[in-house]
Amino acid sequence: QRQVPEMEAYKGMQSSKGGIIGMLEVIQTDFMRLSSETKASEKAASAEYKGFMEEAVTAKKQKYDVERKTKLDRDSTKFDKGESTKDLKATQEELDEANKYYEELKPSCAEGEVSYEERVARRKEEIQALKDAYSILDH
Hints:
Blueprint: H1 19-109, H2 116-138
């Protein structure tokens, strides 16, 4: 058989500062401290959250405004580009027609350089021919 060592009877922690009442007081003060720390922490977190949300709402509105302005600018630019493209096409067509007409007129204008005297002589001949035709029609 085994022998069980003899031990004193357990009497609890009655000797340390008031026993159960002291332990309850410690628990109560710990609870009050934890409660006040938690309330202060929650209040700070709530204030931080409110500040964050105000900043987020402001930032969201600013980003929305920037996006809206950018879209309006883009649409305006697209419209202006379309108008400019139409104008360019019309102007190019006019230029092509003018160049074609110029090419038709070029041979008649560039016969060679005629001197002033030759032009005066031709003009006098033409005037004389017109006078002769007038006199024939007049009689």
